[in-house]
Amino acid sequence: MNRRPLILGVLVVALAAFVAAAWYATRPAPVVAAASVPAEQAEALLRPHAPILGPEDAPVTIVEFFDPACEACRAFHPIVKDIMAEHGDAVRVAIRYTPFHGEASEEAIRVLEAARMQGVYEPVLEVVLREQPRWASHGAPNADLVLDIAASAGLDPELARDQMRAPDVVGILNQDRADVETVGIRGTPTFFVNGKPVEPFGEATLRALVAAEVAAAGS
């Protein structure tokens, strides 16, 4: 019996299965045809006071509802930075404070705002997230540590103590809390890309939606 056709058939089937599996594993995430938020929420989504990471005039804006005490926000931070690096000047990130973890969250936000006044926002953001397990333990949070941690990234702690209690910082906290309610944020991080919600939540969906908006901006 000549077994060569049988062997060739098996090899062809195996090759087809391998190609299909490779395509499935590497396929891009589908771009969800997300609609922009309703008009009554659009103003609350992005305010002029929001800290901006990246170029101010980028055509694509990721709005991140962000809690510095949130473990998932810490986990997503390198992903967000990677997306920004991938798309260069086309993408910026607007941070909306979402203090869902009580006093520790609020104290860290006050420190971040003091850092913004002193021109060291991004290095302080990096160290606050990196050292998050020290100060934001859900069982025993220690908000008093945040200022010392931020000082290691260049913050002047004596100047910051006054800046953290400034009326502008109180106003930002109050406005962001109100906007969180208006937009209906229930968890962090929550992302919107050019006003469109990232649904379902996940890295692949975020990457796909950003890529689609960047492509649309360049067309």
How is this structure best described in words?
The chain is α+β, with helices and mostly antiparallel strands and 219 residues long. Helices cover 57% and strands 10% of the residues. It is built from 10 helices and 5 strands. It has helices at residues 4-26, 39-45, 71-87, 102-117, 121-130, 132-135, 144-151, 157-163, 167-183, 203-218, and strands at residues 52-53, 60-66, 91-97, 190-193, 196-197. The protein has a 5-stranded mixed sheet. Helix 3 (71-87) runs parallel beside helix 10 and helix 4 (102-117) packs across helix 8 (157-163). It is globular. The termini are far apart. Residues 20-26 have low confidence and may be disordered.
Q: What series of H and E elements makes up the topology?
A: HHEEHEHHHHHHEEH
Number of strand elements: 5
Q: C-alpha Rg, in Å? A: 22 Å
The dominant shape is globular
Question: Helical content, roughly?
Answer: 55-70%
Largest sheet: 5 strands, mixed
Strand content: 5-15%
Mean residue pLDDT: 89
Can you tell me the residue ranges where pLDDT is under 50 for at least 5 consecutive residues? 20-26
Terminal residue distance: 61 Å
DSSP helix count? Answer: 10
Strand line-up of the largest beta sheet? 1-3-2-4-5
Which structural class best describes the helix and strand composition? alpha+beta
